[in-house]
Amino acid sequence: MRTGRPRTKEFYVSLKGYKIIRLGKGQAAKHVPQHVFVAEQALGKPLPHGAQVHHVDLNKGNNANANLVICQDQLYHKLLHLRTEALWETGDQHKRRCGFCGEFDSPIHMSVLKTSKKGFKYYHRICKADHELPRILRERPYKERPSRWLKNAHSSM
Question: Residue 106 and residue 151: Cα distance in Å, rounded?
């Protein structure tokens, strides 16, 4: 005997906002994100391990072939999101956002830090120094601070 609500729709929307479709019937039914199914149909085979599907217009409900890009890995998928954000914000897809001040700038004027989540963080050196200075001042005893810091501290008072 079946318990619970019967599903009357062809799909449901996951908590992350993706359309999930049901393939097959009964116990053998498999629930698959619709954008992954559409990408696999276009490719003609299952997606390779680690591949991700990117929505060009960032609309998770638009699963048209022309709106989907198959990314080889998460790093390339993140790069597409970075470039899309930069294009929309500045009109130049090559600019990056500083992780400290939030301003967009050319990567030539920025440093790059590899993060633990398989990504990169761009920043201005001066922004990082301004961010870390209060921590450095808290951690070092007063006598160990360079004299240039002491002069700046006294001149600002």
Answer: 34
What is the model's pTM? 0.70
Is 63 within 8 Å of 35 (Cβ atoms)? yes
* Structural tokens at position 127: 């922004």
In a domain, 77, yes or no: no
Rounded CA separation 76/50 (Å): 11
Residues of the domain holding 128: 92-157
Q: CA 99, CA 102: separation in Å to the nearest integer?
A: 6
Percent of the chain whose pLDDT exceeds 70: 78
Q: How many structural domains are present in the chain?
A: 2
Query: What mean pLDDT value characterizes the chain?
Result: 84
pLDDT for res 3: 46
C-beta neighbour count of 102 within 10 angstroms: 8
